[in-house]
Amino acid sequence: MNHNPAPVGSNYVQPVGNGIVFLVLTVISIIYVQWTWTDLLGQFGGDNAWYLHMAKYLSPFTSPSDTTKYFAQHSPYPPLIPIILALTGGAESLLVAHLTTTLFLLGSFLMLYIFAIQLIGSRLIAIGIVLVFATLAMTYMHALEILSENYYLFFCLLSIVLAGYSEKNKKNIGVLMAASLLAGSSFLIRSAGLSMIAAFTVYIWINYPREWRIKLYMIMLSPYILSKVFDFKSGESFSYISMMSGKLSLFHSLNDVVSHMGAHIGRFINAWFNIFSATTNVGVIVVGILGILSLIGLANRVRKKHLDGLYLFFYILLLLLWPFSPEAERYLYPVTALMLGHAVYIVHLWVKNIRIGGLAKGALIAVLLINNMPALAFTYDRYTSALPEDFSEYRHAAIWYGNKRQVDYRGVIMIQTLTEAMKAIKQAVPEDQCVYSIKPSIVGMYSGRVSIQTPLEKLSDQEFLHDVSEKGCQYFFILPFSSISYRAPFYPVNRIKGFSEQIFSVNRDEVSYAALYKLKN
Fold first, then answer.
1. Are strands 434-437 and 450-453 parallel, antiparallel or unpaired?
2. Which of 148, 400, 445, 475 would staple 49 via disulfide (CB 3.0–4.6 Å)?
């Protein structure tokens, strides 16, 4: 029998640690709910509108309109996020859609905390990793949007946490079955979930007995199989996987592949620095060292055949093969949490037998938090800045958080003005008519009318007219944006002026924002 008394204060260490963790997670949750408490869409990227169209089509609470049905059936996106939004009421309320998305991000923070404990064993270091991730500008700015990344992050982290639990509990097959289901479901959130499926396939093959493999593989693939059985899409929409296949089919040699991947490496290195807002020389050095540490940690996890290492390896490989990278930060963001964990993990392995090992890990967390502070302070200052009453809700819109206050204020005016203009389309365009636009999902969402992609700028005049004639829309909604596909703002107003009439135009403070044109009979 052990008669040695417990060290003084030892009975209080665990409750105090748990209290700190609970307090930090609670404060983070309150701040994020307040930050995302809005019924604004806030930006005109097409992804979020597509999800909402699909959610309205699938909602058990309301009947879908013809417009909603059109967009749902032509959506390029997997169905799981719309299903979640439909079941939570996000289809009927933008506020609920925002809060549902936030809930998955908060769940990701909890999963990251558990994953970090599995890696390192220290609750305080684990909650420090969560704090670093939660205070990244990319994390909190991304939280303002209804996008796929935070849903995907939660599913992948939960699958990894369950796999880690199974490893430490005599390879519990029940837990592993849940992990495999989540891994397969990630593909129904983002096409990049293919990397999780590849990683889980290899992970099961090298770590578990043959008699388990078929069962686990079938469970992993079951979400995809069910999605195909109950597919409601028309089959006319593109997918990112088909885009990647098309891009890879253009490679005629290994040199083409290497060249493509080499070009992407530079973009994603820049994305890594941008995610951490590394703008100073010191920040660049710190974030650069962090990236190197994370890659060393990744190599160690792959060598030890853990799911998180295999997943991150396949995800990075997929990024380097991706067809394009105009939004490299968005693509890299979902694995930033894992990379943070791997960086601290490898430091943990190096210093765990050193007396000041805990101090070294704590110092790394502190340096990363300090690196996040300037961007966080700027965001807080902008959030609390006075906006005119008509625009005060735009504190919850990403467009308000650029580098120049006056430019950002004009952006807020533009977003609000265009939102009202798109709503006016409903009164001007008959219900059975459609509208051309360079932002069809957004226009369709606000106008309640089917909107079709405007024929591309690169088409000849003859091809343009043929495309218009073939699709049969009579209306064009003109927007002030430019992009890779539409380099000229207000496209295609110059092409259609000779055979169309203006229905209305939207001007504010002597600035032209939008116009609706109708083809002449």
1. parallel
2. 445
